[in-house]
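Anyone opening a protein record will find just a pair of labelled lines. A complete record is shown below as an example:
=====
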Amino acid sequence: MYPILPYGRTVTVLHRYVSGQDQWGNDVYSYTSENVGPCSIQQASSRENINFADQAITGVVVYVPWGTQISYLDAIVVDGTTYEVNAEPDHWTSPFSGRSAPIRVQGLVVKGASP
């Protein structure tokens, strides 16, 4: 059997967890990293926010192998850029074959300044 994504690439998933609290009682987060692949990487929309800010917001869609543990709390690193996972990843199963498809993960990165 051949892989579903024979020319896919490897990405890094950063799993976030609470590692303590700061002096004001706020949660402090740390990350563990995991290399995942093969993945399909597709650029998504990019937009600019100029309402009281100067920001560029860029999206990416990454299809990771079925069974990958990833949630909206995590981040994904693609070509050196860290994208925050935006919403819950999508899990799909074909109603025709019963086979599981790769998991669709949407990521966003925001660059720039805001007041």
Strands lie at 9-21, 27-49, 54-64, 75-78, 81-85, 103-113. The radius of gyration is 17 Å.
